[in-house]
Amino acid sequence: MAPTLRRVVALAPLRLRVRAGQGAMDRPVRWVAVSELEDPTPFLEGDELVLTTGMRLGPRDAQPYISRLVARGVAGLGFGVGLGHDSVPPEFTEVAAGAGLPLIEVPRETPFIAIGKAVSELLAAERYEELSNAFAAQGRLTRAALQAGGMGAVVERLAREIHGWAVLLDESGAVIHAAGAGAVEGTHLAGRELGRLRASGSPASLALSGPYEHVIVQPLGDQRRIRGFFAVGSERPFSPVGHTVVNTANSLLTLSLEQGRDRLAAVRRVRSAVLRLLLAGDRQSAEGILAAVGGGLPAGPVVVLACEPRDEEAFYDMLPGFTAPWGTQVVVLAAAEEADHLAEVAAGAGRAGVSGPVELSQLATGLDQAERALASAAPVMRFADLAGQGLLSLVDPAVLSAFSSSLLAPLREYGSRADLVESLRAYLACNGHWDAAAQRLGIHRHTLRYRMRRVGELLGRDLDDPASRAELWMALSASGSTGPPGR
């Protein structure tokens, strides 16, 4: 904040007298400019106290001279008397009064440099006061952050510091804490602006100004991830101190969120260790460790969910109960009656495989079922449904394809004749009945017998052995249709 013109004129040693514009004396004075030019405005920025002796100015210059100063936005005009003019020309006083520009008479005994020094000292004092206020506010915010429920305390302290309102929101825009008069309306306003911040692609602040309110919306986090948002609003424009206070609150809130995330990450590592103990059959140790960090295991049979969420960090917040990282997956242990609901939630956040109900002593079986179901999930698959699709659905497609290619290769390479493969397919489809298989192929049964002997020789397999038949059927199923072959 800069000192006002009223405060400058009130300095008794300067012996300044107001001749016009008494109603505009609360304008800030950000500098003192001395000029004897007929038009000093090219060298001004606004909010200056312009000092002149008027040695080049006559009565007819009053209107254009003061009009230019008003258009430039100066704080006031100091007219030195005793050199060019014995007193302030009445034309200048009249024009200044009409324009609402403060006109100050500077006596001969007051050098212009004394006014410049006085304003400089006031500016330095104001700056020191600003810095002192900023440090004090930072201290109050830091002490608030150290209290229980630190984020809420910071939000409440911030609202008081800026004499307005403050709102803390999570990543989705839901309100975590709000304080100050107007916080409800501010929440709605901030919510409308979050889309613009998200669309920017990187954390950036947003400032809005209106006739009756000034608002700042800022993200909390870093370039990698936005952890949340907070918004503040005040009837007055934010001063440099105000911006410093807001930025301090941003840092404290971000730190609090990061510390909370670090604690959650540590808890997840503990739960991962608990899961390993459960899989090893040490339930007693697992429950003891879990109780130390807070939480428990579902009672009775559990359903295991193996999940691949799009946003793992947000996924943990969506699911209650026991969750733990497991390699690239998140494992969830749920009571049987909650499994369907949690599966829907997991499906909405990514992919999930769901086991059948198992006792905790059989957790390894449940996890294996969930992971097998996850391999076919789009976006969710239950092991019971997967098992209903047949034995082949339980085998990794890549492994099965390699097995099929390797096993059937001798038949496909034999004289480039495909009839051995199709003959074998028909023979197995008819459960080894020669007549039925030969009829499907449209050949004589003796021809089929010859082909099957050749198949057995090429593959080194006994086609009367049930295990060999099963393997060959799986290989054929992986290589193409298992329906009746055409002629």
Which ranges are low-confidence, i.e. pLDDT below 50, for 5 or more consecutive residues? 481-487
Number of helices: 17
Q: Roughly how much helix do the residues carry, as a percent range?
A: 40-55%
How much β-strand is present in the residues? 15-25%
Radius of gyration computed on alpha carbons: 42 Å
Please outline the major beta sheet: 5 strands, mixed
Distance linking N and C termini: 96 Å
Kindly report the average pLDDT value: 83
Based on CA inertia axes, which overall geometry fits?
A: elongated
Structural class: alpha/beta
Q: Main sheet: which strands, in order across?
A: 1-5-4-3-2
Q: What is the number of E strands?
A: 15
Task: Annotate the secondary structure layout.
Blueprint (H helix, E strand, L loop, with lengths): L4 H5 L7 E4 L10 E4 L13 E5 L9 H11 L3 E5 L9 H10 L3 E4 L5 H34 L4 H12 L2 E7 L4 E5 L3 H17 L6 E4 L4 E8 L4 E9 L5 H40 L3 H11 L8 E8 L2 H7 L3 E5 L2 E7 L3 H11 E5 L8 H12 L5 E3 H5 L9 H17 L5 H11 L4 H8 L3 H15 L6 H14 L8
Parallel strand pairs: 2-3, 3-4, 4-5, 14-15
Antiparallel strand pairs: 1-5, 6-7, 6-10, 8-9, 9-10, 11-13, 11-14, 12-13
Helix pairs in contact: 2-3, 4-5, 4-7, 5-7, 7-8, 13-17, 14-15, 14-16, 14-17, 15-16
Question: How is this structure best described in words?
Answer:
The chain has 487 residues and is of the alpha/beta class. Helices cover 49% and strands 17% of the residues. It is built from 17 helices and 15 strands. Strands 1-5-4-3-2 form a five-stranded mixed sheet. A five-stranded antiparallel sheet has the order 7-6-10-9-8, with helices on both faces. It has a five-stranded mixed sheet with strand order 12-13-11-14-15. Strand 12 and strand 13 form a beta hairpin. Helix 14 crosses helix 15 and helix 14 packs across helix 16. The longest helix is centred in the middle third of the chain and has 40 residues. It is elongated and about 140 Å long. The C terminus is likely disordered.
